[in-house]
Amino acid sequence: MSLRIPVAVISTEYLKEYISRCLDRMSLDIDFSFYVFHDIDELADIFRSIPEEVKGVITGGAVPASILRRMFPDTGRVIKAFNNDDAGIFKLFLKIFKDNPGMGTDRIYADFLEVAGIGTNEYLFGDNEIGFDETSTQMITQRPVEEILAMEDYFYYKHLSLWQAGKIDYSLSRFSNIVPRLEAAGVNVHFAYPGQSYMRSICLETVQNVRILELRDHQAAAMVVTIRVPEEESPVEGQAGFRPDREFRLRLECLNQALRRFSTVYQLDLILRPQQRGFEVLTARKVLAVITDNFQTCRLQDFLLDRLDFDIYVGYGIGVDMYQARINAVDAVREAGRLPFGASCLVNERDELIGPLRSGNKLVVSREVSEPIRSAAKSSGLSYLTVQKVMAAVRSTRDHCITSKELAHKLAITKRSANRFLSALSEAGLAEAIEVRRSTTKGRPERIYQVDVVVMEEEAQGG
């Protein structure tokens, strides 16, 4: 007997009864819980209020689903939508034409077709290779957030103005919040309900994706926590007379106690394996997601920083198996160790370096060396990884322009190192100092560098 999957449904009050009735008829092995919103601004708070164990969320339309994906890009949940299927839309138009013989399509306004960027005649009589659901979802995803948030008011006034001007006889809408308002204004409006068969397929897709997500949560992962030790003081196992000094042993014990305390506070079952400079933990991806707040920050680093009087480095690794996860964790902690102070980094199964996780401004760097990166490294004298990091930092800016101070902040390195990287790229003809930014306070003016966009685009495609 399969376990029932909990799924949250977020809809308007207008749509809740219809969705609930359809779901009851389906008799699916799913526990549905309903959340009602009256305004788009309520979506974020509702999403946060859903219990953590609920990994599947279905919204009553493509617009709220798109907004939630934008607001929570790193959510560990599956977000789907009861949008519209072609069968349901054609059924609605067929009923209108049956009740009104001879009516032209120009007397009907359908806001959901405008959202999808399709004319009525084109949709009804054209050769559309892509279904409405996919087309409309793509169009909504491509729109700016501000435009998506303003959609309801825009379409309410468009429906109303067309009706009052006598240009239409029927208004068809997919925005359930504006339908009652249009009805109150006397508009002959009809809501485009999703078909039950289509809704069933969305429910089954959600459950399937949740189960895939659960398997992903149990993906092999490892973490390595090491103490920052100056080279001249670091104990080297295997050397004659090898004896870690007393202070280092005390630090190891302090780190051990702090890690166990962290495990208790966050209710994580962490089994520590002692290493020469710290500890290793073999675990699962979902545990790393908790510790790093879905790979955004490092709660462990912050926790230890408040309790230890020495710097530590944290490396997280995710892999297709435990061997790769451990190797990636070692690579990640080595990368963290290159930073001036205690830091945390992650290397995932796609060989992407993510970090530093304590900066609040993480970067995702593909470690796959493409030909443009190879060429840029050779001409600039920088390492492949350094070029990839600089490119990732520049891509995160709006206009591909950056100062050494900004680069230093994004990479968590010294300003001197950042200036050296930009100067090397500039000398190789891959960056150009396009202007000088003068500070209103005392200090030297800063050069603003523009990095070769072509190289970046090629690197992104290659990686």
Strand order of the largest sheet: 9-10-8-11-12-13-14
- Report strand %: 15-25%
Largest sheet composition: 7 strands, mixed
Overall geometry comes to globular
Distance between the termini: 43 Å
Percent of residues in helices: 40-55%
Number of strands: 17
User: What's the tally of helices?
Assistant: 20
Mean pLDDT equals: 86
Regions with little confidence, pLDDT below 50 for 5+ residues: 235-242, 456-463
Q: Given the helix and strand composition, which structural class is it?
A: alpha/beta
Nearest-angstrom radius of gyration?
28 Å
Description:
By secondary structure, the chain is an alpha/beta fold. Helices cover 47% and strands 18% of the residues. Strand 13 and strand 14 (363-366) form a beta hairpin. The chain is globular, with a radius of gyration of 28 Å. The two termini are 43 Å apart. The relative contact order is 0.07. Mean pLDDT is 86; it is low at 235-242 and 456-463.
Walk me through the topology.
Layout (H helix, E strand, L loop, with lengths): L4 E7 L1 H14 L3 E7 L6 H7 L6 E4 L2 H10 L6 E4 L4 H14 L8 E3 H5 L4 H6 L6 H11 L2 H5 L1 H14 L5 E4 L5 H6 L4 E3 L4 H22 L2 E8 L18 H20 L6 E3 L3 E7 H7 L7 H7 L6 E7 L3 H16 L6 E4 L4 E4 L7 E4 L4 H10 L3 H12 L5 E2 L1 H8 L3 H13 L3 E7 L8 E6 L1 H10 L1
